[in-house]
Amino acid sequence: MKISAEEINKIALLSRLEIHEDQVEAVGKQLNDILSYMDLISQVDITDVEPTAHAVSMRNVWREDVPKPSLANDKALQNAPEPEDGYFKVPKVIQD
Hints:
Elements: H1 5-14, H2 24-42, H3 73-76, E1 83-84, E2 87-88
Antiparallel strand pairs: 1-2
């Protein structure tokens, strides 16, 4: 499938991409390569293939939920630019 310069410019406009005139040929070649590959993929027989959400099987790895000591407050605040009364001081984000 051959894609025209007019189609490339339309696709660029719709996808908000800036493609200069000297780039149209290179982009056209890349798009044609992609479309050719998609044609090749569409020829594969997938009648006996079950649909999947992932290409490889996945499983969750769970660990025991055991409480552990947390970081000490002074240690957590040691690199804070402006600690105040044991807390991180941050700019106000809610308007009055």
